[in-house]
Automatic annotation (TrEMBL):
Enzyme class: oxidoreductase
Keyword Iron-sulfur: yes
Residue span, Globin domain: 1-133
Keywords: 2Fe-2S, Heme, Iron, Iron-sulfur, Metal-binding, NAD, NADP, Oxygen transport, Transport
Family: Belongs to the globin family. In the C-terminal section; belongs to the flavoprotein pyridine nucleotide cytochrome reductase family.
EC annotation from Swiss-Prot or TrEMBL: 1.14.12.17
Domain FAD-binding FR-type span(s) in chain numbering: 138-240
Cofactor(s) this protein requires: FAD; heme b
Reactions listed under catalytic activity: 2 nitric oxide + NADH + 2 O2 = 2 nitrate + NAD(+) + H(+); 2 nitric oxide + NADPH + 2 O2 = 2 nitrate + NADP(+) + H(+)
Taxonomic lineage from the root: Bacteria, Bacillati, Actinomycetota, Actinomycetes, Micromonosporales
Protein name: nitric oxide dioxygenase
Gene3D superfamilies xrefs: Globins (1.10.490.10), Nucleotide-binding domain of ferredoxin-NADP reductase (FNR) module (3.40.50.80), Translation factors (2.40.30.10)
Pfam family, one: NAD_binding_1
Length: 371
């Protein structure tokens, strides 16, 4: 597998700089091979190619770690049930992908690269199909929006209840979500902001600073009573209940959502582990979840919350980028660390933790965008 991983990464350099042509060629070939597949995709394909390539890159890097690679692919297979993907579709996708890679790579492509991609895709598709076959739940859940609160011009906190079937998740996980009323067949990932409960109610924190389709609809158009669709929960940014280490949580913006869920779960059983939450935003007005955290601090002596603002000179608290604030309070070498926020914020926080020599297995993170 080491040699296959090397060949995959090496050959990827031949096409990485021409992603638009790669995705365009792939989809043209895919729909030519099986025109019926077009109905599984959104009407507007803008951005669809980027998500395909991100999945490929993730798989390429995951292949270095067979254990997490296996679980990642099985989860991906379960998740793809929401698209109504059948086993025969994996064969068609494999043919289209290899054809696109060969065409874009040009003369640099050779038989070794071709065989490595064939072997890797065979493993990928087999494990995805196994994950889908083993899943006993529905392809997706219908959920009714219960509440919707706006926080400023581009942030919303909403709750919904999954209907018909229990939806089981762990604090720190995320689901893929669709707003069929406005953007059918367009799915985006959002973390649950609450721990599991018997009422099947989920909370989401959504930011839409621009005209993003799903996030824009969730912030500006969705109302109580509307129906959403939720796919199977995914993600491994979950608590290790066997650990006795204290906990560091770092949240930036709406990255607070999974951190909120982790703290809520800890509140149900923790008595011995100190939990330090660092919560950052640009302006004090953007710290929409601070009051709720402070209520928890008032009743749980093991919990501390440190808010910080990077661009608010009037803020009466820590100022600066949240990774820099975390660094000032370190070291965090003996902690379990959870980080959630933008890609830039997560990268900077991971550098702080690396400088503190926190063992990588003690770090879990969730990022909104490529890491």
């Amino acid at each position: 597998m080491d040699n296959v991983a090397r060949l995959l990464k090496e050959s990827w350099t031949l096409v990485e700089g021409d992603r638009d042509r790669l995705s365009g060629h792939f989809y043209a070939r895919l729909f030519l091979l099986d025109p019926a597949l077009r109905q599984l995709f959104p009407v507007q394909m803008t951005g669809q190619g980027d998500r395909l390539l991100e999945a490929i890159i993730t798989a390429i890097h995951a292949i270095d770690d067979p254990e997490s690679f296996d679980e990642f692919l099985r989860s991906l297979g379960r998740d793809h049930r929401k698209y109504h993907v059948a086993d025969q579709h994996y064969v068609t996708v494999g043919v289209a992908l290899l054809d696109a890679l060969r065409s874009i790579a040009g003369e640099g492509w050779d038989l070794e690269y071709d065989q490595a991609w064939r072997d890797a895709y065979g493993v990928l598709s087999a494990r995805m199909m196994a994950g889908a076959a083993a899943d006993e739940g529905p392809p997706f859940w219908h959920a009714e929006v219960l509440t919707h609160e706006r926080h400023g011009p581009d942030i919303a906190v909403l709750t919904c209840r999954a209907l018909q079937y229990p939806l089981r998740w762990r604090a720190g996980q995320y689901v893929s979500l669709e707003v069929p009323r406005y953007h059918p067949r367009v799915w985006r990932n959002y973390s649950m902001a609450n721990a599991p409960n018997d009422d099947n109610v989920l909370e989401f924190h959504v930011r839409a600073p621009d005209a993003g389709w799903v996030s824009g609809a969730l912030v500006r158009r969705v109302k109580p009573g509307h129906l959403l669709r939720l796919a199977a929960p995914m993600g491994s940014m979950t608590l290790d209940r066997a650990s006795e280490r204290d906990i560091l949580c770092v949240a930036g913006g709406v990255g607070l959502a999974p951190i909120n869920a982790l703290v809520e779960e800890l509140a149900s059983y923790n008595r011995t582990r100190w939990v330090h939450v660092f919560y950052g935003a640009r302006q004090a007005a953007d710290l929409y979840g601070l009051a709720r955290l402070q209520e928890l601090v008032a009743v749980h002596p093991w919990l501390s919350v440190t808010p910080a603002c990077s661009d608010d000179p009037d803020f009466d608290g820590e100022r600066g980028e949240i990774p820099d604030v975390v660094a000032r309070y370190g070291p965090w070498t003996t902690h379990d660390c959870y980080v959630s926020g933008s890609a830039r914020m997560v990268r900077a926080t991971l550098r702080v933790l690396a400088a503190d020599e926190v063992p990588p297995p003690h770090i879990r993170y969730d990022t909104f965008g490529a890491i």
